[in-house]
Amino acid sequence: MMKKLELEIVALSHSVTQSHNYAVVLGEVGGNRRLPIVIGGFEAQAIAVAMERMTPNRPLTHDLFKNTLDTFDIDLKEVIINKKNGIDSIECKFCSKNFSDDEMRRKSRYIPFDADISPSAG
Which site from 4, 30, 57, 71 is most exposed, i.e. has the minimal number of CB atoms within 10 Å? Predict the structure, then answer.
């Protein structure tokens, strides 16, 4: 069984290794380890806007997904970053604000789900 670590964003900067990209640096809560993740400019902008609690003039692309989750009272429960067979993967677990996982399973229209948003190999 894998050990889960709580991470927080500790930095957002230009990527040293890839031009025109940025790095979001996740840090272990209560620890010294860091995990840099290279991201694109649009993703960096979205993270910076959220970190500074700014409101853009118009919604950003990811706001559609966030607003959909909010509309249906769904929270992001956890994000698991993992390496399986040498391939990095990101798994997101969601839950309802109004129902436990067991309650969601009992109700035919409320089904808990996981979303695999692993980056493409291309």
Answer: 57
Instruction: Enter the tokens of residue 54.
Output: 């700014």
**H or E element in which residue 66 lies:** helix 61-71
Instruction: Give the pLDDT confidence score for residue 66 in this predicted structure.
Output: 82
Q: Where are the beta strands (DSSP E) in 15-104?
A: 22-28, 34-39, 74-84, 87-96
Nearest residue to 90 via CA among 50, 41, 43, 42:
43
Q: If you compute the radius of gyration of the chain from its CA atoms, what whole number of angstroms results?
A: 17
Q: Is the dihedral of CA 104, 105, 108, 113 positive or negative?
A: positive
Closest CA to 51 of 13, 77, 14, 18: 13
